[in-house]
Amino acid sequence: PPEIGMLSQLQDLLLDRNNITGTIPTEVGNLSNLIDLLLNNNYNIEGTLPSEVGMLSQLQRLWLPQNNFKGTIPTEVGMLSRLQNLLLGENNFEGAIPSEIGLLKQLSQLKLHHNNIHSAIPSEIGMMSQLQELRLYENNMNGTIPSEVGMLLQLVDLSFAQNSITGTIPSEIGMLKRLQKLELDDNKIDGVIPSEVGKLSQLQRFWLYINNINSTIPPEIGMLSQLQDLLLDRNNITGTIPTEVGNLSNLIDLLLNNNYNIEGTLPSEVGMLSQLQRLWLPQNNFKGTIPTEVGMLSRLQNLLLGENNFEGAIPSEIGLLKQLSQLKLHHNNIHSAI
């Protein structure tokens, strides 16, 4: 009810996880002492986010995900100088991310995923020095990744996946020493994988599949000692798998399928990946024999090597793969007995 705006001493307004309908009354802007405004998971709150929300000078948490908001994100959001969490995901917001968002110096979480935002990522995003989580996936965002992203030194989680982002991965991304998740999949990113990626010593997830990357895999990738997922499939990657991949002792998933032009042999160092569960390499141009060291991958569940130019024998060591559920070696030049 609009009368909620009369609660001048209110600090916490937690109405999340109900079945509330209608719009946010503009009178909410009168709640000058409000710290927490949580309306998430109501599913049917609709209309626009009123500009009066910018008057909530004490606000620290604004949680609105999983509703039916529409319209643009008001520029007045930039006036919320104490804001720590801005969660607007899973709505129908559209238009641009306002550049004023860069004024939110205390912000640690920015989640705008699963909306209809169709602008470039504003360079002002680099001004949010406390940001730890930046999730913009599943929108219609375009333009390039701004180099200013490299200024987000506290960032742990970055997802720009499932957009229409173009251009290259900026080398400045190597400055994000705390980064654990880097999700850039399903975009139109091209160019090279910058060698600076090797500086991301805490990285656990690197998702770059379904893009237009047309470079080799840099040997510096082997420096990512915490990496669990390396998903580079469905690009235009060329060259060979660097032997340094064998240093990725925590790797669980290595997906390079459908690049068509990765060539050379499968390095024996792949046998050092003791945690590996999925090795997907089909639809490339690998040659040579399948290394016997594959038999050392005791946790392997999927070994997909089809549609390449492997030759020679199927190594007997493959029988050591007790967890294997899929073995696909079709469309190669293997010429041995089973």
UniProtKB/TrEMBL annotation:
Keywords: Leucine-rich repeat, Membrane, Repeat. The keyword DNA damage does not apply. Coiled coil: none annotated. Residues 147-254 form the Disease resistance R13L4/SHOC-2-like LRR domain. InterPro entries: Leu-rich_rpt, Leu-rich_rpt_typical-subtyp, LRR-RLK, LRR_dom_sf, LRR_R13L4/SHOC2-like. Pfam families: LRR_1, LRR_14. This is Disease resistance R13L4/SHOC-2-like LRR domain-containing protein. It comes from Ditylum brightwellii. The lineage of its organism: Eukaryota, Sar, Stramenopiles, Ochrophyta, Bacillariophyta.
